[in-house]
Specification:
Layout: H1 11-21, E1 26-27, E2 52-59, E3 65-69, E4 79-82, E5 89-95, E6 100-106, E7 113-116, E8 137-143, E9 148-156, E10 159-166, E11 173-174, E12 187-191, E13 201-207, H2 208-213, E14 223-233, H3 251-263, H4 274-285, H5 297-304, H6 311-327, H7 336-351, H8 356-370
Parallel strand pairs: 10-12
Antiparallel strand pairs: 1-13, 2-3, 2-6, 2-8, 4-7, 5-6, 7-14, 8-13, 9-10, 9-14, 11-12
Length: about 375
């Protein structure tokens, strides 16, 4: 099952070709986030992620991409633990540093790695391998403050190879082991640089065929299929911090309920009643210096459905959803006054706009709040 991302702008193609021209080395991720309209309901999310991966895709020499994981569906269905270990797990969480959802890994001090396949069900992960025969470049983004390793399993005309990537300053090439360990001598190592273990996001693009035949590996083999992606961190068994819950809903949640319940007079596929929505709108209409004074449901839907690039309109879009969340009782850390102060800062920015950067910085805070993050306003 291939996924269509909502996070890629036109600059993605530039990013891809910049990587190809410079030899597919590690580089920073310039991709901006868009509004996520995935409704995650009351799912608890950590305020910031620790060791995570995002936007895993294959691409060809013409820049065409096939996305296998962008985390925007809120699911982890296509991930397998290998080997399985008690206590190890992964989560689909929102990361305010990236402005989108990501896959966060918790190996809990075990040897467990996490394999991304093209499906799930009975059998083993091999039953759900990518088997992609049209693309030989891979791109993925990582954020780690501990050592990690990524393996990309490829099939060549001489068998399977595990292309291994670690945050090291050297590449060790082909791993050759004596009997009885020759079955492990199918790994080709490439160092990505030690400076990427810094707790920041980095995007990696690799030419898999070039890595297979690079100096130190020197294999006279041709890749004909990309099979799997596996990643492992080397953390301690310290459990993750408990998530801070803000029981907020996304823009998509509010749009869906306003459209169906109010504008279309439907009840199927809804989570709120007409009376609830009217009660929430009354709060929004009367909130502080509100730019939404006297707003109708039709206007509210239009504001939250904005898809342009105007900074104030983007801020209004997120702020309005935030005010509906406030009206529904989704307070930051359970603090109504703090949440009201947060919303008033947004209204003040609309009435007396700052620079575009200042407007968008505040807009991103409301976006994070609407996606469940409480670590946005202290």
């Amino acid at each position: 099952m291939f996924k269509k991302s909502g996070k890629f702008l036109a600059c993605t193609v530039i990013v891809i070709w910049a990587a190809l021209i410079t030899g597919c080395s590690q580089f920073e991720n310039p991709m901006a986030s868009e509004d996520s309209e995935l409704d995650t309901g009351s799912m608890a999310k950590a305020s910031a992620v620790f060791n995570a991966v995002d936007d895993i895709m294959l691409l060809d020499e013409n820049g065409r991409i096939q996305i296998y994981e962008d985390a925007e569906d809120g699911l982890i269905n296509n991930w397998w633990m290998n080997p399985e270990a008690s206590g190890a797990f992964l989560q689909n969480n929102y990361d305010p540093d990236r402005g989108s959802r990501v896959i966060e890994l918790f190996d809990m001090g075990t040897t467990t790695g996490f394999i991304l396949t093209d499906g799930d069900g009975p059998g083993t992960f091999w039953n759900y391998s990518w088997n992609n025969t049209s693309k030989k470049f891979i791109q993925f983004s990582v954020k780690f403050n501990v050592d990690f390793v990524v393996w990309v399993v490829v099939s060549t005309d001489k068998g399977n190879r595990w292309l291994e990537y670690t945050p090291e300053d050297v590449s060790r090439g082909l791993k050759v082991l004596p009997e009885p360990y020759t079955y492990m001598s199918n790994k080709v190592h490439t160092g990505l640089g030690s400076d990427i273990v810094d707790g920041q996001w980095h995007t990696i693009t690799r030419d898999l065929q070039a890595d297979l035949i690079a100096d130190g590996a020197g294999l006279d083999e041709e890749i004909y299929a990309i099979r799997l992606f596996k990643i492992r961190g080397y953390s301690t068994n310290t459990p993750p911090p408990p998530p801070v819950i803000c029981d907020a809903h996304t823009i998509g949640f509010w749009k869906n309920n306003i459209k169906k319940v109010i504008l279309q007079d439907r009840t199927n596929g809804t989570q709120l009643t007409r009376d609830q929505l009217i009660q929430y709108l009354d709060v929004v209409q009367s909130f502080d210096k509100t730019p939404f004074n006297g707003i109708s449901f039709k206007s509210a839907y239009s504001i939250m459905n904005y898809h342009g690039s105007d900074a104030i309109s983007l801020l209004k879009k997120q702020l309005l959803a935030s005010e509906f969340n406030y009206a529904a009782g989704a307070y930051i850390n359970g603090d109504e006054a703090l949440t009201a102060d947060f919303l008033m800062a947004g209204e003040a920015m609309i009435l007396n706009p700052g620079s575009r950067d200042e407007i968008l910085e505040l807009q991103q805070k409301f976006d994070a709040y609407n996606n469940g993050s409480c670590d946005v306003w202290q």
